[in-house]
Design brief:
321 residues; alpha/beta; six-stranded mixed sheet; two-stranded antiparallel sheet; 13 helices
């Protein structure tokens, strides 16, 4: 099967009363990142170009109208203050038309209400800000609302949770379409973890940060990143932090919001993804470099948490035979 080219043109629908945090998130992720990171043809668009009010009272000037949605590979509906009132019919038509021609259509936070009003969530799972999940479910009974999800990927329709979870949604889209190397590079540029992992890849149990404010733990985390090929038992990490295992686990959770095992697992999977994309190393060697005992263990973890085996992941991003 021929792989559909990853998106290169991104348009974010920016309604009156748009959330400034959401504007900042999509601009940070899909805007310029310097020569080291490939850029996107990114634009904000709105119903009527010109000054657009925001939820913080400071207007922003947007130069593109809804016609920009007609040529975007990725369309993102941003949240807005008056989301309880459906967007204008022209907006709903533009969102539906984008989906019908094969564009990826995503929504951040209560932007999901716009996709629901356009009928794009009927028969699908979706999420939104947890505070408004019940309202979304009540208004659109044909939508299966999952309030605990960080984001829900339904193929060509993707929805994300509220506030800062917009970063998780956008980084997931980068990772899915362009691979871990680009997602990791953008995440480093905006000083965020490239992937937050829970029981499944798209659910949040606890964040997996790149750093913390505890100097002693920071040194241990930095050492662990440089020594992923080692087993890295918690007892060794605790010894390097000069703590008991119990104290280390407590301090680790307080400083990072997760467990050492979850943090290491996310780091190892992210490292494996990048090596699969950027090298020709055998899967057995990749497994060794990121700290798994065998290729079989890496495969089991990869399938469970990323949904595909390592070799299939590599083929999807390298066009390998």
């Amino acid at each position: 099967m021929t792989r559909v080219p990853p998106f290169s043109t991104v348009a974010a629908y920016t309604p009156p009363g748009v959330g400034m945090l959401a504007v900042g998130i999509v601009t940070e992720v899909f805007g310029p990142h310097g020569d080291a990171v490939p850029g996107f043809d990114f634009a904000l668009c709105t119903d009527r170009p010109g000054p657009v009010p925001t939820d913080v009272g400071v207007p922003i000037t947007i130069t593109h109208g809804l016609d920009r949605l007609a040529r975007a590979d990725l369309v993102i509906a941003l949240p807005w203050a008056d989301f309880r009132t459906p967007p204008a019919p022209a907006v709903l038509d533009a969102l539906s038309a984008a989906h019908e021609r094969g564009a990826l259509v995503a929504a951040h936070c209560v932007g999901a209400f716009a996709l629901a009003a356009a009928g794009l969530l009927d028969g699908r799972r979706a999420t939104t800000h947890w505070r408004f999940a019940e309202l979304l479910a009540d208004r659109h009974p044909d939508v299966t609302v999952e309030p605990d999800a960080l984001y829900i990927d339904e193929g060509r329709v993707i929805t994300g949770a509220g506030a800062a979870a917009g970063f998780d949604l956008c980084l997931h889209l980068l990772r899915r379409e362009h691979g871990a190397a680009l997602a990791n590079a953008v995440a480093r540029d905006v000083v965020l973890p490239s992937h937050r992992d829970g029981g499944q890849a798209q659910y949040l149990a606890a964040p997996v940060p790149e750093d913390c404010h505890d100097d002693r733990l920071s040194d241990v985390l930095a050492w662990a990143r440089e020594n992923l090929h080692e087993r890295l038992p918690v007892a060794e990490l605790a010894r390097r932090a000069m703590m008991s295992k119990r104290s280390f686990a407590r301090r680790f959770a307080a400083a990072t919001g997760t467990t050492p095992h979850a943090w290491l697992r996310s780091l190892r999977l992210s490292g494996a993804e990048e090596l699969l994309e950027t090298t020709d190393l055998p899967v057995e060697e990749i497994a060794r470099r990121v700290g798994y005992g065998s290729a079989a263990v890496l495969r089991e973890q990869f399938v469970r948490r990323r949904g595909v085996p390592p070799r299939s992941y590599r083929r999807s991003f390298t066009n390998a035979p």
